[in-house]
Each structure stands twice: as structure tokens, then as C-alpha cells.
Design a protein that fits this description.
By secondary structure, the chain is an alpha/beta fold. The protein has eleven helices and 15 strands. The strands form three sheets. It has a six-stranded antiparallel β-sheet with strand order 2-1-4-5-6-7, with helices on one face. Strands 8-12-13-3-14-15 form a six-stranded mixed β-sheet, sandwiched between helices. A three-stranded antiparallel β-sheet has the order 9-10-11. The longest helix is centred in the middle third of the chain and has 38 residues. The structure holds adenosine-5'-triphosphate (ATP). Pfam families: SMC_N.
Length: 364
Amino acid sequence: MALNRLMLSQFRNIHSADLTLGEGVNLFYGANGSGKTSVLEAVHMLASGRSFRSRQHQSVIQRGSERLTVFGRLSTGFAVGVERLTAGGGQVRINQSPAESSSQLASLLPLQLINSDSFAALEGGPAVRRRLLDWTVFHVEHSYLEALKGYQIALRQRNALLRRGKIDHSQLDIWERRLVVQADIVDQLRRRVFADLLAQTETLIAGLPASPLADVVIRYRRGWRQEATLGESLLASRDNDLAQGHTRAGPHRADLAFSVAGQPAQAILSRGQQKMLVCALRTAMARVVAQSHRPPVFLIDDLPAELDAEHQRVFAHWVADSAAQVLVTGIERDVTCQPWLTLGSPWNQPSVFHVEHGRISAES
Ligand SMILES: Nc1ncnc2c1ncn2[C@@H]1O[C@H](COP(=O)(O)OP(=O)(O)OP(=O)(O)O)[C@@H](O)[C@H]1O
């Protein structure tokens, strides 16, 4: 599954563009501020209904315009259109009909976005890493979204009861029982997918030259104590949870922990090694999803700014074995092309686009 055609209008500094994308690598190069990242942002909007750079649609709509539109035609035959209005609201359509949810978009167009934020995954809070696991489970296990929603409803109810101040034990019992049932389903699905993710990540790392990366241990932490059931943990922490006003154990606290020789991985690995670890994990996510759903499209923002030439080449090889299509950006044309040229067809024949002051021209 690939994106065959991408049309944008009034999207940041891009007044309008109508792009026919190639099946392998699509390379967008140009000076700082020319609009390269905006192209990736537009694709992200097709796959989720929102930008990855700002929560407010207003900042993405071209200054002075009333609306932005993005339209994409997928190789699977689906057409997706997103419109956002300065006044608020807008619409998302799949084959002319209103989309039911952003998860419907995500399922049509699985995306892996690699940018400077992705490389900070090891340093940030658990939510960042949990989202990576959730993305993978969502695409692999069809029942996951419903299980997660069921869990979140029960969690919200328990938190609302905790915040009432006066504890109603019978009500808490009811919601905790539901919470535990949903939590177990979420945990089982995450655990199953994590095992595949771990195996794929370890295989990729094993192919790298010897370095401390080979000693990285990745663990799934389910969000509550190992020696207790969630029901026991919730009961034991009721008073503390009441004081805090929220539930402090459960799948909403799950994490992926990376360590080397018992130390946090970020305390041992160099910045470049950490980035390769993230690249391996992202590639592994794509491979797991490709096996049971469909290979994702990779959006890679300015890789030459993140990795040296050799590591860019390794990552390009990984991606070519895992992706449906790639959109990459960079400032210099040849430097950005370089890692892809040693690959087989179609990856070694990028479709090249020059971006200049919001105008995008295809090079022959
Ligand atoms: N709402 C908007 N309306 C018009 N222009 C905007 C709007 N938001 C941002 N811009 C401008 O659009 C351009 C967007 O640039 P973008 O981040 O896509 O560039 P880039 O080529 O990826 O740059 P860099 O190499 O610096 O990361 C910038 O020049 C920015 O100032």
C-alpha cells in the first residue's frame, strides 16, 4: 500500500501542490523553511486527521486563508480528504463519505514518522514509549482499540469516584472489577505483540557491528507490581489514590524499559547509538505490522542531520525491507539521496522533488 497522489492547498507556506509520488523513495529537498516538513505533515494529517507539529489546526492553515485541504489517493483504491477551517472544525472523508474516526484513517494508512522528536524516545516519559507499543498493537490486534477504550472508560470512572472525596467502596468495587478485566485484555495483547517486537529489534541489532547496543535489554513493564494482581494493587493503593485523586497503577502506566548492564540505556549509549536503537525499534514496529496488516509508509525528516553516512545507509536498508514507500526530506539533494542509492530497485531510483518557498517541482 502506497500513497500514489498527494494534493495540498493552503497548507503552511504551500499554496497548492499536486504530486504524483513514486512507489519507492520520494525525496524532498530544499533550503531551511522551504516547506519540506510541511509535506510530511500533510501526509500525517491524512493518516490521523492532525498535524504532528501543532495541536491547533489554525497554525497549519496558511496565514490569511480560511481553510486547508489535503487529498491523498492510496494504491489500495481509497481516497482520503481532510479539510480544516480557520473558524474551527472541518471534515475528513474516505471515498467521499465522512470518516468514522481517526483510527479508521490510521488503519488505511499506517505511518512511521521519524524526526528529531522520535530520537528522544529513550529520554522522555513512559507515554512516548507506550505510544510506540500501542501503535504496533493497534495495527496487529483488531480487538485492541475496543479493549483500550473499555479500560479508559473504567479508569475515568474510578478516577471520578476518587476525586469525589468521600469514598464509595461499593461503587469503587464495581469499577475496579471492570478495570481489572479490561486491563488484563490490554496487557495480554501488549505482551503478545511486544514479544514479536523484541525479537525483530534484537535481530536488527544483531546485524550491526559490535557495540554496547548488542547488550541492550528491552523489557515490557505492564504498569503494576509483578508480584500482585491489578485487583490487589488497586485495593492496596486506594487510600493513596484517594489522596492523589487518580489511579496510579494499571496499563495506563505501562512502559518499555531499555537498559545496558543494569543501567538505563541512555546513561551508557552514545547519542548516535541511542538513535540507532530507536531506528531498530521503529523498523521492528513496521515489520511486525507488515506481517499481519500492511507495511507502513515511512516519513523521514532530515536523516542526514541525525545520523552519519554509514548509519543512514544501514537504516535505509532496514526501511527498504519493511516499508511500503518512503518520503524523505533533506537540505542537500545528493546527500539525502546517498543512503538509498546502494539499495535494489525501486528504492535506488528516488522520485525527487525540489521545494522552494512553498513551491514543489518534480525533477525528471
Ligand atoms: N500558517 C502558515 N502560513 C504560512 N506560512 C507558514 C505557516 N506556518 C509556517 N509557515 C512557514 O512555512 C514554512 C514551513 O516550513 P517547513 O517547516 O515545512 O520547512 P522545512 O523545509 O522543513 O525547513 P527546515 O529545513 O528548516 O526544517 C516556514 O517557512 C514557515 O515559516
